[in-house]
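Repro:
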Amino acid sequence: MPANKTCPRCGARFQCLHSADCWCATISLNKKARRELAARYRDCLCRECLTAIAAGAPIKGGRTD
């Protein structure tokens, strides 16, 4: 079931499908980026942020509990 979310990196609103069919499954991230994202964020990032990170943009922000 789709969920409306807010990107913890940039604050944009987006929809997450919570499945292998989600748009995020089409974005390729290297292992280092995946580790850094998991360490900094508790939830999904928007398409624009994931695309930028995949292209080499810095991973900014941090985990908020």
